[in-house]
Specification:
mainly alpha, 6 helices
């Protein structure tokens, strides 16, 4: 199992958030797909606002949060991450990043793990190639922060990733010079 998915499953187990047993694909309701889409769109919106702001550490946090949200949907389904290369070439425009993120999120309306995985993989690629940052270290720090915040504030099933109650970790150490 993907190590990042294991971390998300740990979060969901710890705070009793719904998820299917790993490897047992579960049908999720239309309303669950709608909520997941809303959470992805919220996380995507925060990511695009971070790009507008231009702070690399904020962009990094928002990309990791978006990936975490996509993995949460995969955990809910009981599915695996489907790793595929992301077809994207930076053309010097932030609009190309916006198109990539928006397109990947839009496809998640299917509720399928392959589409959630595409969001996750796009976040990894943008973190590594666009930001020149360590995705694994960032993800681990983000996850540790979520676990700690969950212990302090409790996890809310409707806002397991995007909650404004959570403090945001400083991931600037994960950016390469």
């Amino acid at each position: 199992m993907n190590t990042h998915l294991q971390s998300v499953r740990e979060f969901r187990d710890t705070f009793s958030l719904a998820q299917a047993d790993f490897g047992v694909k579960t049908h999720i309701s239309d309303m669950d797909i709608v909520m997941r889409q809303a959470w992805l769109m919220e996380a995507g919106s925060k990511t695009l606002r971070a790009f507008k702001k231009g702070e690399m550490a904020d962009i990094l946090v928002s990309l990791v949060a978006l990936a975490y949200c996509a993995l949460s949907a995969i955990a809910q389904r009981g599915d695996s991450v489907i790793e595929r290369p992301v077809v994207w070439r930076h053309d010097g425009s932030v609009l190309s990043v916006m198109r990539l993120i928006s397109d990947k999120i839009n496809r998640c309306e299917s509720g399928e793990a392959v589409d959630y995985s595409a969001v996750y993989c796009a976040c990894i690629q943008l973190t590594r190639s666009f930001l020149n940052a360590d995705f694994d270290k960032s993800f681990n720090m983000f996850h540790a922060n979520r676990m700690e915040n969950g212990k302090n504030h409790g996890a809310d099933a409707d806002k397991d990733v995007n909650s404004d109650r959570y403090t945001t970790p400083d991931l600037s150490d994960c950016l390469f010079e």
